[in-house]
Amino acid sequence: MKGILVSSVIALLLSFQPVNAETVQMPNNSSSVSIEIPSRGMTMNGVEEHFGEPEAKKDAIGEPPITVWQYSNYTVYFEYKNVIHTVVNKS
């Protein structure tokens, strides 16, 4: 009985140890210059009319077909004929 009590007290005391954690600072990715980019749901025709001809077009691959258009400042990803994501290129 005494052994169980001592073990319980030690376990209880060990559970109150301070926890150390490091705070990691992440760089701020927001740019002071904002650019207009295609939004999710836009069609290929709408993107081309509003933003012009892309510098490069990669053929659709996979199922569902994913097409990639590359512009100088960003890359646009399409699923079928609609924008699913736009990524700003690193400077």
TrEMBL record:
Name of the protein: Uncharacterized protein
Species of the source: hydrothermal vent metagenome
